[in-house]
Amino acid sequence: MSEERKRTAEEIAADLARTRLELTRTVNELSDRLDPRTQVEAARTAATEKARSFADDVRTGEPKAVAVAGGAVAFLGLLIVAAARGRGR
To answer: Where do transmembrane segments lie in this chain (predicted)?
Structure first.
């Protein structure tokens, strides 16, 4: 059986410093992930990328994208007509 060697005070202090640094990094990373401003910015970036991708698909004539865009335009047209009729009463 091998006996464990006792660690020196310097080794223990170095281990504690290393552990403290790892914990600090972990807490900072979690704090960044949970920060509402960071989450809003990530959502904004994702929405912008999706909108650009959708616009590119419409420009290139991708059938599903064109159908969705046409449906959105038709829906907006119906809303405008309904609003105009509601004001006329």
So the answer is: 65-84
